[in-house]
Structures are given as C-alpha cells and as structure tokens.
Design goal:
2 copies of one chain form a homodimer. With 349 residues, chain A is an alpha/beta fold. The first copy, chain A, folds into 3 domains: 47 residues, 434 Repressor (Amino-terminal Domain), CATH 1.10.260; 132 residues, Response regulator (Rossmann fold, 3-Layer(aba) Sandwich); 131 residues, 3-Layer(aba) Sandwich (Rossmann fold), CATH 3.40.50. In chain A, 43% of the residues lie in helices and 15% in strands. In chain A, the strands form 2 sheets. A 6-stranded parallel sheet of chain A has the order 2-1-3-4-5-11, with helices on both faces. In chain A, strands 7-6-8-9-10-12 form a 6-stranded mixed sheet, sandwiched between helices. The N and C termini of chain A lie far apart (95 Å). In chain A, 49% of the residues are buried. Chain A binds a DNA duplex (16 and 16 nucleotides) through α2 and α4.
Chain lengths: 349, 349
DNA sequence: CTGAAAGCGCTAACAG
DNA sequence: CTGTTAGCGCTTTCAG
C-alpha cells in the first residue's frame, strides 16, 4: 500500500493545480508559461485553457522552485555603501528601474561602511545565490572579494570603489583626475595656495586616489603640503566634523579644504560656523558629489558632480552584459564624467 | 536571441559532496548542520568528520533548496516609502541589525511613492516568498493589500502608514495627536493664530490624520482655517516648494506653517528665502520627524520628533512575534512616542 | 503537439 | 546512532 503525503491545505496554487484545472499535464503548463524559451509549438486551444486556468486561480510561479531547477534567480543584489549617503539614492533608483524593466527583482542591502555588514552581504549572496551583484564595498579586503568571486562565479560590478580583481567590472576612476582638477581649480581660478583635504581613514576606497589627485595637483603647482593639511577621517558627516575641528586647532589652518565627499564637507561647514567662522569668508569648502544636502546647507556647497543616475544605469547594463553572456573575459573599467559645480562655499583670494 | 544556459562546472560544494568526503550519508550531514532542530544524538566522531569536511570544502548550505523544502526562507522583506527620506534610514538600520542578530537576511526595496513600484514589491514577495514583510505603503489600495495578504499568508507590519487590515500590525498613529500637539503649541506657546499646513495630495497616508490633528487643534483654539491654509502637495522637497510658492501668492499668508514632513519643510524654507523672506522672521516653519537635513538647513528646523531607531526595532520585533507564532489573531496597533524639538525656525508672535 | 519522468539541493519521516 | 526515501514546485529531456 502506497502512502501519499498530503500537502498542507495552502491556498497558494501550484502549477499542478493549474494543470488539473486545464486538463493538461503540468509540463504543458510550464511550456505555455515559458513560451519564450520553449521551442515547442502548442495548440492555441490548450494554450487558452491554460491561460484561463492561470487567470482563474491567480497563479504565480514560485521563483524559489524555479531557481532551484534552473540555477538562475531573476534577481540581482545591490550593496550600497551607506544608505544615508544620497550619493547612492539615484543609483538605487536607476538599478531598480532598469532591472524592473527586464523583470528582474532587486535585493538592496546596506553596508553602512561596517565590515561585518559587508561580510554578511557576501555571505548572504553565497547562501542565497543571485544572478548578479552590484556593490560599493568600503571595508572588504581583496581577499574577501577574491574568495567570494571564486566561490560564487557571479558577475560583479563595483561602483565608486577601487576594486582590483581581474573579473570585476568597475565604474569609477573619477577620484584621481576629478580631485586633481578640483584642487587645480582652487589654485588657478580661486587663488588658494594653502589647501587641505579630508580623506578616508586607512586605505579604504576612495581615499587613496583622491589623495593622490590632491598631491599631484599641489606638486604640479609647486605648493607644499603642510603638516596637518591631510586629515584622514570617516567618510561621514561626523568625519567632516572631526577633520574641521582638527584644522581649526592648527595655528595656521588652510584657506580652502577639499572634502572627499559632500557629507563630510557639510559636517565641516557646520563645525566652522559653530566656532564663529564664516564660510567661505574665513575658510572655503569644496565637496565631492551633488547630493540634495549640498544645496540645503548655507552656503550652498561648491562641488565636483557626477551624473549619479547615469552611473546607476551603467552599472546594471554592464552587469546584464555579463549575465547575458554577451561579455566575458577580464574586468572592464569605466570612467564616469564629472564637472565642477560652483556654488557659494568657495571664495577667491 | 538565444539565451545561453551553460551551467558552469560549478565548484560550489553541495551537502552531498560534504557527505562523500566525510564518508557518511547526506542526511547525516543535514542533521549535524541543523543540530538545533534535530532531536537525534550523533557520535562526536562523525560530527567532527563532517565539520572538518564542511570546513575543508567551504561548504555553504543552499538556502534556495532549503526554502523549497521547508517553506521558510530565513528572510524578511522591507519596503520603504522613499529612499531619499532619511526618516527610513534609521528604521532600515534597526531592521537589519535585529534581523541579522537572528540570522535572517533582509531584502530592502524602495517604493519611492510610486504605485507601480509598490505593486511590483507585492508581486515580488508573492513570487518569491519571504517569512515576513515590513512596509510603508503610500500608494497601495486596501484591495491591493487585501489580495496580497489573502494570497500570501505572510505576517505584515506596516509602519508610519494608515493601513486598515484585520491581520496587519501597525506602528504609527502619531500623526493625529502629534500634529494636534504641534499646532496647539504654535498657538499657545508661540502666539500664532494664522497657521497653515502642507499635507499630502489625495488620501494617501499619512495625510488625512495629520490634517485632522490640525483641524482639531484649530477648532479647539477657536481659530478659523482660511482658504488656502491647507496645501495638499507631494510628500517631498518639491512638494514643499510648491506649497510655499502657493502661500506666498496669497494676499495674506499664514504666519506659521506646519509641514507634514521635514523634507517638505526644508523645500518650503528654501523657496521663502529665495523670495527674499526671512524664516522665521516673516514666516515660521515646523516639520515632522528629525532627519539630518533638519539641522543642515538654516534656520535649523523646529520639529516633531520620533525615535526612528526604536520604531525600526519595534517593527521587526512585532514581526518576529508573529513569525514565531507567539502572537496570532487580529492586527495590533502601536503608537510611537513623540516630542517637540525646538530649534530656530519658529518665532514667537 | 503533449505526457512521463528525472532531478535541482535540501529536510524530515521512517527504518533499521 | 545512521542510512534510505519521499518529496518541496519547477524545467527539461526523452518518448511518443
């Protein structure tokens, strides 16, 4: 005697329910529902019966079962660096839009510049595979990434971060040249000669390249980088506060400071103002990336701006190229455009 | 277009690989790895061999397969209203933290106040079940939610939104009383008598209750709501700009305006200042919710503040109560605390 | 044109 | 204490 295992009376219809209602086999239902991939012709009659049954039951394919079978998930994962950094918001939107138009779901995760979070993200993607990954790693080591890519074989696009891995496509690279241009602009157009930079503590991206751009610009202009000009702090509002506090304790602070991101620049401005200084009267501030806060703050922040939506769109498109198999081979590098947007936080000397 | 489907010789180890290496059966591996749920004792020897094999292969359980079998996913989905609204950032962090501590993964999605996005989210969760859902719906209709809950049977917590469904736990309800208190404060403590409110276009949450709180406070103080005092606009920076522009076109604008969220308040302040007005000298502004921008703007925004992290933590905890089966029955309602934080955007009359 | 059947990787009875 | 087995819901051969 054969004992049948009875399924819970869940009211979520399965393909089998559809098949029964339409009076066909379950595999025929599958064929109809995946018409695009199925090279088999099916009679209009059965097709219609099946579609009716789908409609009637409100059937939705179970993606988990499908994924197990196909080893593909129709899902991409995005890890942003810090949800509070508006830099990532247009990127997230663009990714959701483009992915959605291709019927891919998007799993967003927030790294928050915390190593454990970033690691947890990798682990999640390892245990719960997706078809592609876009990420802005800030704390992960090369070994972490190496191990991840070796294990997962999932296409990865890194944005706004210096990831050096032979298989990872990278969007970024603006840091060095854009910082160079910004510093040079402060020197040549605005007449500053004593310029500071607040960068990132440690060797975390995108600290080093922005620092290099600064150093190169200063050197090319024959200016010396005094002790204390380079402040390495966190990539956040608070980091900017600390850096500015440090500048203001110096006997002779710089006349202009370039912040590696605009949140830092705003934190810095607030501290300077709290100490009774005028920005840009007493000290000029310049930021990196155009976020809404840059025009909320007073004075409005002069910045290096990138087209964030474009970066987001490009990230998904690049990713899809690999997911579709249109591109194979070593990681590519895409440099985004930038321009200086002058507002009111920098004065001429 | 032919979709290529070459399944790589994936080197991702399966449980079977572990079993082979350890010289045991696959189910024994499963037992060891799920020790907590397994009531069966296992010899220390085999256990060690298995753990060694796991280590050696770097084995990670495949959650997709596990989910298919167990009908549980170890994942919760969060749909926030608008990724650019800092209101949601602490909530997201809290959710990620609490969920992470219980080894649940979190899928964040961004509704962006767009109906299609919100619908897409529901659809995603239907096709790709999760164990629980936290959401801040802004455009979904009651029928959308009804249909979703009926189909999915997934516990849902709604935050900061007026969802009326017998099975949905709701955190919120601050809108009416907090707005009442804020308006009353403007009247009694600050002496304003001609007060406007910028709320939400249509009947979208949390427009109506905030409007009701306003109306009740005005009525209780015996003040009349003049035509044009109530501006219904989008829940965004731009909405605030439009509302303020509308006020300033009036022959006799209000002396104080309460904005239904702080982003709107900031947009409004910027427009007023652009038109040469002084805030709060010419017009006082008050916002709802403490977001970083509220202290970036000048004057710093006087607001009604809630503890956003606490709301986030509470949301997950409530959700887990249902996921764990500790709570069943009709949807509960949780009212969060609030307080007025006075800064510089409101003056006494 | 359609059905039967073999799994995807895992868990959970059921049998030793 | 451990192995065998039956699926979870779906796609994809392989046979008609």
């Amino acid at each position: 005697m054969v004992r049948r295992k009875t399924r819970q009376p869940s009211n979520i219809p399965t393909m089998h329910d559809v098949a029964k209602l339409a009076g066909v086999s379950q595999s025929t239902v599958s064929r109809v529902l995946n018409e695009t991939t199925s090279p088999v012709p099916i009679s209009d009659d059965t097709k219609q019966r099946i579609l009716d049954a789908v409609e009637q039951l409100g059937y939705q394919p179970n993606m988990i079962a499908r994924s197990l079978r196909t080893q593909r998930t129709q899902m991409i994962a995005v890890m942003i660096g810090d949800i509070s950094n508006a830099f990532y918001h247009p990127i997230v939107r663009a990714v959701q839009d483009v992915a959605g138009s291709r019927d891919y779901d998007v799993l967003i995760s927030n790294g928050d510049h915390v190593y454990e979070n970033e690691l947890r993200f990798l682990q999640m993607v390892l245990r719960r595979p997706v078809d592609g990954v876009i990420m802005a790693p800030h704390r992960l080591t090369s070994e972490d990434l190496e191990r991840f890519i070796k294990r997962s074989h999932i296409p990865v696009v890194a944005v706004g971060a210096q990831v050096e891995h032979p298989m990872v496509d990278v969007i970024g690279g603006t840091s060095e040249p854009a910082t160079y241009e910004a510093i040079s602009w402060l020197i040549k157009e605005k007449g500053h000669r004593r310029i500071g930079i607040m960068g990132v503590a440690g060797d975390m991206p995108p600290g080093p390249p922005r620092l290099r751009g600064y150093e190169r610009a200063m050197a090319d202009a024959g200016l010396t980088i005094e002790e204390g000009f380079v402040q390495k702090v966190e990539f956040t509002w608070e980091g900017g506060e600390h850096a500015m506090a440090a500048y203001l304790q110096q006997p002779n602070p710089p006349t202009a400071v370039f912040a590696s991101n605009s949140l830092m620049a705003i934190g810095a401005i607030k501290v300077a103002q709290k100490q009774g200084l005028d920005v840009p009267g007493d000290i000029s501030m310049m930021g990196f990336d155009d976020i809404p806060e840059a025009t909320i703050v007073n004075p409005a922040l002069t910045i290096v701006a990138r087209d964030l939506s474009a970066i987001g769109r490009q990230a998904v498109e690049i990713l899809f190229e690999r997911m579709d198999g249109d591109v194979t081979g070593p990681g590519r590098f895409f440099q985004s455009e930038w321009r200086i947007v002058e507002r009111n936080s920098v004065r001429s000397i």
